Amino acid sequence: SAVISQKPSRDICQRGTSLTIQCQVDSQVTMMFWYRQQPGQSLTLIATANQGSEATYESGFVIDKFPISRPNLTFSTLTVSNMSPEDSSIYLCSVVAAGKTTDTQYFGPGTRLTVL
Amino acid sequence: QKEVEQNSGPLSVPEGAIASLNCTYSDRGSQSFFWYRQYSGKSPELIMSIYSNGDKEDGRFTAQLNKASQYVSLLIRDSQPSDSATYLCAVNPGGYALNFGKGTSLLVTP
Questions:
Q1: Which residues of B touch A29 (CB under 8 A)?
Q2: What tens-digit pLDDT sequence spans chain A (116 residues)?
Q3: Strand pairing report for B61-66 and B71-76
Q4: Do B102 and A105 touch (CB under 8 A)?
């Protein structure tokens, strides 16, 4: 499977600031996604990162709060904007590798965000 | 609301025993089912996928699917302490998005 890296691995941020998380894959992938895992909860899909176009957001998530970019097939960023303590969570990118079925997803190591 | 339900546990089994993890889902049209293992502080790791009714075996792991009952299970044979983790059931109701359960915590005691 593809090797996925995320930066930063963790961060502590102040309320009202923004953080950009990077996801890098070592090979071309067909699809990239961003998930959130709040403490004690399961994973919730934020959006699908589309190459060269606007991301597709799930219900309850908006572009102003979570702008996403995907300039090429191996890289994507998620920004958490105007953060509040409720945004404290683990943010994970996942990918579908080329040649795999579209629902076989592999996860990056995650970014643990704490908002004070 | 497309629900995926799992018993949160913890499920405690002795080393060498069979661990049985269960999952039910609400969307009858779901076609793809996955089990992920998540160690504390780590990201989910895909361990099994199943698409057809019946059993699918991979090493010590067996996934079982019963679409009529909307039920998926994961059996871990010869459980080891290293199997102690949270196991997430994921269901694809259609398209590409996965719906995840909250996970079952498994503890394998030496």
A1: none
A2: 689 999 999 999 999 999 999 999 998 888 899 999 998 888 999 999 989 889 999 999 999 999 999 999 999 999 999 999 999 999 999 998 777 666 678 999 999 999 99
A3: antiparallel
A4: no
Which residue bears the tokens 């597709």? A56
Q: Which of B4, B92, B100 sits opposite A103 (nearest CB)?
A: B92
- In 3D, which of A76, A68, A71 has the Cα closest to residue A95? A76
Q: Does B33 touch chain A (CB under 8 A)?
A: no
3-state helix, strand, coil in chain B (%, to 5): 5, 55, 45
> Which helix (H) or strand (E) is B35 found in, with range?
strand B32-38
Distance CA B6, CA A100 (A): 27
CB A38 within 8 A of CB A115: no
- Closest among A39, A75, A80, A42 to A61, alpha carbons compared: A80
Residue A42 Cα, gap to closest chain B Cα (Å)? 4
Cα(A68)–Cα(B16) distance, integer angstroms: 46
| Among A103, A107, A114, the residue to mutate for chain B (most B Cβ within 10 A) | A103
CA-CA distance, A67 to A82, in Å (whole number)? Answer: 11
Residue with tokens 């998930």: A35
Percent of chain B with pLDDT strictly greater than 90: 81
